[in-house]
Structure formats: C-alpha cells, structure tokens
Amino acid sequence: MALLLGKGRYRARLALTGADIVAAQKLRTLAFGTDQTDRDDFDRLCAHVLVEDMRSSGELVCCFRMLTMERGDEIGLSYSAQFYDLSALEEFQGRMVEMGRFCIHPDWTDPDILRVAWGAMTAYVDQNNVEMLFGCSSFAGTETAEYLDAFAMLKHRHLAPKRWLPRVKAPDVFRFAARLRRRPDVKKAMLRMPPLLRTYLLMGGWVSDHAVVDRHMNTLHVFTGLEIGAIPPARKRLLRVVAG
C-alpha cells in the first residue's frame, strides 16, 4: 500500500489497482451528479489519491488525481489546457502537479476529510519537490448571479500575476475581472466560495481573470495556481503538522 497519510479515522493512499481507480470514478460520478461514469483519458496518466474512513471498513470518502510535469513547457498536455490558454506558464521552470477531479462523498461533511486530503497533497509535494500546484476550481452550476460577490473578491484580491495569467480559450466564459464593478461583500463571498478554492486562496493561490462555463460538468470553473514557495510560513507549518 502506498500510504501518504494516516490521521485519526482517515487514511490517504495512492490508488494501486484498476479496482481502486474504478472506485474513484464511481465516487466522482456520484459527487458530480453526472449521467455517465466520470472517466476520461487523463485517468490513465494520473496518480489517484484515495481518502478512506477506517472506522467503516475503508469506505472511500474523498478522492482526487494528480498529473506531474517536469517543467512548464509540458503544461499544454494538462486537462486545464483544454479550457485555458496557458502559454504564459510554459516559462515556469520547476516541477508542477495538476490537481483535478477533487470530490468528497456528498453524505460526508466532516471538515477533517479536507484537512487530510491537503495533508496528503503536502506530503506528495514535499516527497517529489513540486514547485507549483494548479487545476480548475469549480462552482456548482453555470449561473453566475449567486456567485457575484465571490467573483468580485477573486478580482480584487486573488488574480494571477501578469507573468502567469491564463488567457481565454474556451468559447463560453464569464469575464468577471472585466465586467464586475462591485466591491465584494466578504461574508457572502466566502460563503459562496468552494471549499477547495478557499483553501488554495488561504495559502496564497491565484486565479484566472475569467471563469469557464462548463455545461458538460454543469460548473463554472476558474484556473487556479499555487506556487509552493509563496505559501506563507505559518500556513506551511500547519500543513506539515497534518502531513507529518
């Protein structure tokens, strides 16, 4: 077993068999509410992390996948590159990991699940000298109205540095940085911010200046990047306490 982390009732490990990957695909299908099994060609290229509850015979409660790249010039092969022009990031020189298909079982609300998932990611980053995490962070549904405060906060506080800023590629996008003039209501913004994206932002992550309207997955998503070297020291210590 490729154990990444064991904390309390939860265990995070790498998928080792085809059955492990099928289990992850089934959980994704349930969590994303898709009509067909959630799988694609990237599944065979990625490492898959499974978070299991050891008090209920190893029930799978969370999963995500990781695609490792040695340098930025490989980023065109990523899942995210289907939706965003990521040519600016081709200049990034360190090892990168695309984190994708993150989901938690809809019947489970224990915040420790997210903590253990991030602890497992931290362990993987440290073990493999990863210098940037990235991926697509999703809002449920394709209507923008209920997320305007969240998007306004992203515009005012969390846009990508110009040197890494993704450009528009998808045919259907919401250009929130250009269109929104409102100041965000911080409380409303944080209530509507997806938990995974909220965690990225707390660590110093940044986003694209537009959201892609993905009708196939019934989501709005923003490209999200996190440079490991830019994570605040206090936040790094907390993550490593979980990962240790």
Structure report:
The protein has 244 residues and is an alpha+beta fold. The protein has one domain: Gcn5-related N-acetyltransferase (GNAT) (Aminopeptidase), CATH 3.40.630. The chain has seven helices and twelve strands. The strands form two sheets. Strands 1, 2, 3, 4, 6, 7, 9, 10, 11 and 12 form a ten-stranded mixed β-sheet that branches. A hairpin with a 4-residue loop joins strand 11 and strand 12. Helix 2 crosses helix 7 and helix 3 crosses helix 5. The radius of gyration is 17 Å and the shape is globular. The protein starts with a strand and ends with a helix. The mean pLDDT is 93.
Observed structural traits:
244 residues, Aminopeptidase, two-stranded antiparallel ribbon
How are the SSEs ordered, and which strands pair?
Layout: E1 3-7, E2 10-14, H1 18-32, E3 47-53, E4 59-69, E5 84-85, E6 96-104, H2 111-128, E7 132-140, H3 148-157, E8 167-168, E9 173-174, H4 176-179, H5 186-192, H6 195-202, E10 206-207, E11 211-214, E12 219-227, H7 233-243
Parallel strand pairs: 6-7
Antiparallel strand pairs: 1-2, 2-3, 3-4, 4-6, 5-8, 7-12, 9-11, 10-12, 11-12
- Overall shape: it is globular
Assembly state here? single chain
Beta fraction? 25-35%
Instruction: Classify the secondary structure makeup into a structural class.
Output: alpha+beta
The total tally of domains equals 1
- Give the radius of gyration: 17 Å
Helix content: 25-40%
**In CATH terms, what is the architecture?**
3-Layer(aba) Sandwich
